[in-house]
User: What shape does this take?
Amino acid sequence: MKPPWVRPRAVVGLLAVCAVLAVGPLLHGDLYAHNLVTLTFLGIAAALAWNWLGGYLGQVSFGHAAMFGLGGFVAARAQISLNMPMVPAWVFGGLVAGLYALVWGHPTLRLRGPYFSIATIGVGEATRLVCTYWDWLTGGSSGLSLPMQVGLKYRLYWYGLVLAALAVAGSYVLRRSPLGLSLLAIKSDVDAASDVGVSSTRLQDLVLFISGATMGLCGGFYASYFSYIEPGDMFGFDRSISWVLMGVIGGIGTIVGPALGAVIFVLVRQFLIASYPQLYLGLYGVLLVLVILFEPLGLTGLALRLAHRFGYRERPDLAT
Amino acid sequence: MERFAELLIASILLAGLYATMAYGLGLIYGVLRIVNLNHGGMIMAGAYAGWWLHEELGIDPYLALLPVALAAFLVGVLTYGLLVRRLPRGAAGGVQSLLLLFGVWLVVRNAAYLMFTGNDQTVRTSYSTLAVPLAGALVSVNRLAVFAAALATLVILHLLLRKTYLGKAIRAVAQNPESCTLVGISVERIYMLTFGLGTALAAVAGLLGATLFPFNPSFGAGELLKSFVVVVLGGLGSIAGTAIAALILALVEVFAILVIPAYLTAAVGFVLLVLVLVLRPGGLFGQRVLG
Assistant: This one.
């Protein structure tokens, strides 16, 4: 009999963590921590969405801010000009962002090698430029302001929790289901995968779309959270890099690694890098180099190594 | 018609720079199968090196070419020896080498930002504004000099790859590293030297570019993309292929000014890349023989 691809332990664990986080704010009145956790949820969802492409398919994107920004601006514009309610506007922004990802990603994912990654560098930059001058959508460099709603920022905590939980669940499905096995096959050897009937073209596009759409959704969430967005920030290069870094710190291609990376990243940025704004790019770079050289699986690799020392052996079919 | 001639000449002169820039990326990719994402960083570093030598020591940018190239060569050798050498090769190593070199690029960028601030800089020489009439158009002397220097660099490179033992060894490693070990070529050493050569080319291109365009620490991202477009378009085959591809890119870019607003020209290279990937994916990187 085949082992089930979702372990009950994992489901229970996820639900328990979500339950604790859901009631947490009712027990304390620390608004600073509340907001920090909300932003962490956003980081988790975005880092996992990046990882679906960068980790599961091995197609690293250096330009995911393009989808984040586009989704954010479409969602904001839909709320301002069409009076669309918040959540449908997020979904709408996500769909547009996912389709946009397909437009440039479809041709570049077809080819083996680093074409996709290189293209993303251009996509991020080109999208930022075009959107900075596209006044109708983005309000130009002065940006867009959403109507203020009292208490919305506080309530968005639970929306963020749902978003992050969905992203974690999505990661499980994309990694452990039969679909996940196909993705792994594509990543290891495209030719061998197609020989056994795995349609790499369709699946790669699917993952790209889901990743881009989730990114757009996150952008819409971000827009509602700050109720003011401008292109230079939404499409910023350091935004794209931050997701790469979350993934790398936590462990590329693992399930919860990038989520862990996002937590660490948000905390480190808050307490350390904020004091050295002129050094943050270099710090990101040094971190990338160190992790890749010494522990390519990031924190997950470190944890596995420790676990092995204490005699733990993971089931081979579930090895990350 | 006069404007047409002007734009045509501008494209050809720009193409020389693009070819030099792209060959550095193509050389490393062809031999090591690694995309040097720090290419953009080294282009930027070359620009700042030339600017610094000119501002502080009063050295003419064209005289600075050789020392900057040598310094960049050493940087490349060190980058390979200290970092890239430790990575796995092939498909599995692809993601890791991309991320590693991207990290190096971020560090280089941040270093430049700390040393020279984020302000735009330009290299201004006494002949920066001189122009001579050529084929009915006024052409800047400096642009001609950049073209000449780029051409000279490519000719030297061609001779190096064709006539010297080192060049033949590099081409041999590009074709088949395993056989090279059998005939006594130290593949690791060739990898290291190739990485140095490619890095030096990036710095030379950056230095030449600095005499034409203003630059700041994020200079190089667009140039990396353009280099990649040229490599994809021209293949790794020959210097001639690279030159033709560079000319195509320069023509498209320069003539795009006529039909689209100026802020969109930055996107032209990217659109061209996607078009090439869609229309002519089969022949990309097809030939693996350098020279």
Remarks:
- Residues 2-32 of chain B form the longest helix (31 residues).
